[in-house]
Amino acid sequence: MTTTAATEADARSLSIGEVAERTGLSVHALRFYEREGLLVGPVRRTSGGRRRYAPSDVDWLLICVKLRESDMPLADLKHFAELVRRGPGNERERLSLLEAHRRRVDARILALEECRSVITGKVDVYADHLARGEAGGLWDPTNSG
């Protein structure tokens, strides 16, 4: 990297606090992601040892946040990061991993929709009984409410 390119990269680099703010991850979580090998590139350090992140690190972390929020197992996220770090040639394996996760997410969404349906039914029963002034006995499991 030329001196000019290095200076420009330094100007665009972000502190761990800035990355935490942009990703919604805590500083502690960012350090954890680094320790666990979840980043696709090494985190640069200043001469004083402070972490400096590239904009591409933030982009990757935003993907990681969504994968974790959707309950991707940590082992799968580590494997995905490792595949990305290896570079071209393993796209089918990456796709397979993501498709498997999507199937789990789809199943979870279906289960949650079923839960919502039960809850909506109970809300309707309670609202109807309360509107009619007939709320007594709703707690009774032998009652249809």
Q: Any chance you could write out the topology, listing elements then pairs?
A:
Blueprint: H1 3-12, H2 16-23, H3 27-35, E1 44-45, E2 51-52, H4 55-69, H5 74-86, H6 91-131
Antiparallel strand pairs: 1-2
Protein model, in words:
By secondary structure, this protein is mainly α. Helices cover 66% and strands 3% of the residues. The chain contains six helices and two strands; from the N terminus they run αααββααα. It has helices at residues 3-12, 16-23, 27-35, 55-69, 74-86, 91-131, and strands at residues 44-45, 51-52. The protein has a two-stranded antiparallel ribbon with strand order 1-2. Strand 1 and strand 2 form a beta hairpin. Helix 5 (74-86) runs antiparallel to helix 6. The longest helix is centred in the last third of the chain and has 41 residues, at 91-131.
Query: What does the largest sheet look like?
Result: 2 strands, antiparallel
Strand coverage percent: under 5%
- What is the terminal-to-terminal distance? 71 Å
> Count of helices?
6
H/E element sequence: HHHEEHHH
Judging from the principal axes of the Cα atoms, what is the shape?
A: elongated
Unreliable stretches covering 5 or more consecutive residues = none
Give me the secondary-structure category: mainly alpha
Strand order in the largest sheet = 1-2
- The tally of beta strands, per DSSP, is 2
How is the quaternary structure best described?
single chain
Helix content: 55-70%
